[in-house]
């Protein structure tokens, strides 16, 4: 008799297959990343259909077959609320999903990653009460980097450990954080960044969402935050073969 496994899950990817089937990629509380096969789940008569979806938080049950896991039950805990800002929510959810998909390749339980994914899915659901919606993605990204062991150094120069001068700050992917002007010149490395970007990074890593959600971030700082975040991610993906690089 097949063993039934039951766990909580957040779906970060879904792919349709033939015959109304669908494969869900989910991060689960007890098994880490899993791909679960939803047999005939796209049929109108499917009972499970409404209980598991992109970025939904559900309790799922599956059986482990020879080649795949097959979904046998799903109970919705929280869904991506489509009533407000659905397009923006989906865009943020897709960006977050892409990061999860690239950096988590194998089945491995991780309570800190699980906690972060549940936290972000709940924040995304309550997005109608915050102003800085796009910061949610960076909030996830940098805290996720921290959990993976790539948290950036932002207090002192990542090379010489000297206190940073707010007027000359550089971000180095290779050194894993902010470096001073002298080290940037010696290493011929680093992109000039502003104290505002470092402040946002600090608030993100302190998980101070109350302040972040009310913070006024200018266009230039937003652009710079995007550039630093994208470059850091791409650097890590390109330099580690365990990850799936998709530029
Ligand atoms: Zn330095």
UniProtKB/TrEMBL annotation:
Domain of life the protein comes from: Bacteria
Pfam families linked: RecO_C (PF02565), RecO_N (PF11967)
Assigned keywords, A-Z: DNA damage, DNA recombination, DNA repair
Task performed by this protein: Involved in DNA repair and RecF pathway recombination.
Gene3D superfamilies from the UniProt entry: Nucleic acid-binding proteins, Recombination protein O, C-terminal domain
Protein name according to UniProt: DNA repair protein RecO
Naturally occurring in which organism (per UniProt): Candidatus Staskawiczbacteria bacterium RIFCSPHIGHO2_01_FULL_39_25
Family: Belongs to the RecO family.
